[in-house]
Amino acid sequence: MKLWRTLETRAPLAVGGLIAVPLYFAALMASSLALDRPHVVGKHEGPSTTPTEVKVYLAALIVPGIVLIGGIAGLALKRRGIYVPAVAGIVCCLVLPGISNGWLARHERRFPLGMDFLKDSDPSNLSSRGEWEHIAQATVTSITHWTLGLAIGTIVVGVLLEIRRRTGRDAIRIEPPPGDFDTGGAPQISG
User: By the 8 A CB rule, do 125 and 21 touch?
Assistant: First the structure.
């Protein structure tokens, strides 16, 4: 019983962690659209520098951090606290694709030759200009849709478990008080 109580009180944090992991990868793609820029030396473009990459990875921690903060806040609500990180995850899933969609054009302007730094007419070109950005946006949208389903599923399972706890085998049974109900409430004296 003690183990169950320990798990029960940490459930909001576990739900927050479960939802935060896929959101980290969606946020990583979105932060790459927002912050990534090529390293330019003269007229030659190259991959991003290490400080730029660090900024991208640190910025990607913001979204899952919000969900984990919801999980930490939900710890105070014990069993019902699982809804806090789930709702935070839902909000992040609804907001992130729209925000990252606004960063597509900016990223495309920063990489005029595309992500492989070759002209579209070059036979070695593997990624045309703007192709990576649209694939990244589609990835953000796909991950957030699946995570949205996960968060909504968490809420549904939580509600069903609460209903089962109140009405099913785990429900607290209230028995009528002992005594004879035909007396109309008058005290009975047994001899």
Answer: no
